[in-house]
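Researcher: Please predict.
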Amino acid sequence: MGKISTVLDKKLNNYLSDFVESFRKALKDDVKNLVQAEMDSVVQQLKDDFTVTTNFICDEQSSLKQEIENKSHIIKHLESATLRFQKEINVLTNRLTSIEKISRRQNLEIQLVPESRTENPMLLFRNLCKQ
């Protein structure tokens, strides 16, 4: 019985050792596959999140670029209008200056006549012309 027990223990130990080793290997492979699947899922989720974020940033950048182009166009239009108005103001200023000069040419200045509150320039002029 002792020898049978020893032989059985030896056979069982070999069989159990092989079984435990194959069980460990199968368990290790299963854990590895589960971890790999979980990691792949997390990496895919991160990729999707980054894709959504980069798409949002690209859309915002495109929107800002379009807005800047619109504002730039408006600024150029306003600058050209400002130049046109400045030229017009210069022309009008020159015309006003000329008109003022012309109107002053028709003026008559009388000096050394005492000034009074009730004076009538037309009457004064007639009186001077009579003398």
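Model: The chain has one domain: 2-100.
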